[in-house]
Design a protein that fits this description.
339 residues, mainly beta, Porin, 14-stranded antiparallel β-barrel, two-stranded antiparallel sheet, 10% helix
Length: 339
C-alpha cells in the first residue's frame, strides 16, 4: 500500500520549490471562488466533508458518499462586472468504488472596445475561460487518511487568441471522526499549456494550501483555519502609499516583517449550525484586508458573511464579501438533492 502512494507524496512535496501568484501565470480564474459557502468563510475553505458537492472542485480529497446525486450551481457578479460561476455533480457507483465528481468553472470578462496602436477602433471583443474537472478520492487502507485528485481540461479565449491546457489537483486529508477534526494539504493546478496564445509558454497558477477545521463539542460552531499560497514566501510587499516621512523629508518604506507575512497567508472562518437546515457563516481574509486597506480609513476589507437555508431538497446560499469601499461582491448558490 505504501509503495502506491510514494509517487503521490513525492509530487506533493516537490512542488514547494515553485512559486506563482496573481499576475505571474495564466488561467488565473482557476483560483477564484464562486461558492457562497467558500466566500463566506473567508474565500478558501478546504475541509468541508459533507453534502457540499462544490467542495470537490477545490479539494478532491473531500469527495465523499454524502455528495451522491448532489447538483450545485454557483454564480457571482464579480468585480468590474465580470461574470463567474461553477457547477458540480457527484455520483456514487457503490460503497467500494466510492464517489466520482465532475465540475465546471467558467468566467466571462464581458465586452471591450478594441483599438490598434494608433488609437483607431478595431471593433469590440470579448474574453472567456472554462475548465472541466473530473475528480476521485480514496481511503488509504483502513487509516484516517484520504487522497484525491482532479483532472482539469482548460480552454481560454481572449480576443482572437486561444489557449488549451491540462492540470491536476492533488490532495491529502486527515479525518478524526471522534474529535470531528479535519486537516488537509492541497496542491492545485499542476499542469501545462498544450497550446499557447501566441507561441509563448506560460506557467499555470500553482497554489499550495493547508486547511484545518473542527466542530466544537458543546457549541454548534465549526471553526476553519486556512493557510493559503504557501508556495510563495514572502507574499507581502511594502506599500509605497504607507511610507513614513520624517521632519527632514526622508522616507522610510513600510516594513513587512515575519509575523505580517504569516498573517497574510491566513484565513479564518466560522460556521454556526453547520449541520442544520439553516446556518450562518463568517470569514476574514487577512491578505485581502491588508492589500485593499486604505490608509487612515476604515473600509472593512477582508470581511465576508453569508447564510444558507434548506427547503426540502434544495439548499439556497448567499454571501456578501467586502473588498473595497468602491466594490464588493455578492455570491448566490443553489444545491439540489437529486436522489
Amino acid at each position: 500500500m505504501l509503495k502506491k502512494f510514494i509517487p503521490f507524496y513525492f509530487i506533493l512535496f516537490n512542488t514547494f520549490c515553485f512559486a506563482q501568484l496573481g499576475g505571474e501565470s495564466t488561467y488565473q480564474f482557476l483560483n477564484l471562488v464562486s461558492s457562497p459557502r467558500q466566500a463566506a468563510l473567508g474565500g478558501k475553505v478546504l475541509t468541508n466533508i459533507d453534502w457540499d458537492v462544490t467542495q470537490g472542485i477545490y479539494n478532491p480529497s473531500a469527495i465523499n458518499v454524502e455528495m451522491d446525486n448532489q447538483f450545485a450551481l454557483n454564480y457571482t457578479n464579480y468585480l468590474g462586472g465580470i461574470k463567474f460561476g461553477t457547477a458540480a455533480y457527484a455520483y456514487t457507483v457503490d460503497r467500494r468504488v466510492q464517489t466520482y465528481h465532475a465540475g465546471i468553472t467558467f468566467i466571462n470578462y464581458g465586452d471591450f472596445a478594441g483599438f490598434d496602436e494608433d488609437g483607431n477602433e478595431t471593433g469590440d471583443f470579448s474574453g472567456s475561460e472554462i475548465a472541466l474537472s473530473f475528480g476521485y478520492a480514496a481511503q488509504v487502507g483502513f487509516s484516517d487518511f484520504y487522497v484525491g485528485a482532479n483532472l482539469k481540461l482548460i480552454n481560454s479565449s481572449l480576443e482572437q487568441f486561444n489557449s488549451f491546457g491540462i492540470a491536476t489537483d492533488l490532495a491529502l486529508m486527515y479525518i478524526d471522526e471522534r474529535l470531528e477534526f479535519q486537516g488537509t494539504l492541497v496542491v492545485r493546478n499542476l499542469g501545462t499549456q498544450i497550446t499557447t496564445y501566441a507561441g509563448v509558454q506560460e506557467s499555470l497558477p500553482l497554489e499550495i494550501d493547508i486547511g484545518l477545521s473542527q466542530t466544537l463539542e458543546n457549541i454548534p460552531l465549526r471553526w476553519h483555519l486556512t493557510f493559503e499560497n504557501l508556495q510563495q514566501w514572502p507574499i507581502g510587499e511594502p506599500n509605497p502609499a504607507r511610507a513614513a516621512t520624517d521632519l527632514e523629508g526622508n522616507q522610510e518604506q513600510e516594513n513587512v516583517g515575519f509575523l505580517a507575512q504569516v498573517v497574510r497567508h491566513t484565513i479564518l472562518g466560522a460556521e454556526l449550525f453547520p449541520n442544520k437546515g439553516f446556518n450562518i457563516r463568517l470569514g476574514y481574509n487577512f491578505r485581502r484586508a491588508e492589500e485593499l486597506r486604505i490608509v487612515d480609513q476604515r473600509n472593512f476589507s477582508g470581511i465576508s458573511a453569508g447564510f444558507s437555508i434548506k427547503l426540502n431538497k434544495m439548499r439556497i446560499s448567499y454571501t456578501h464579501a467586502k473588498y473595497t469601499a468602491a466594490s464588493n461582491s455578492n455570491f448566490l448558490g443553489l444545491q439540489i438533492d437529486l436522489r
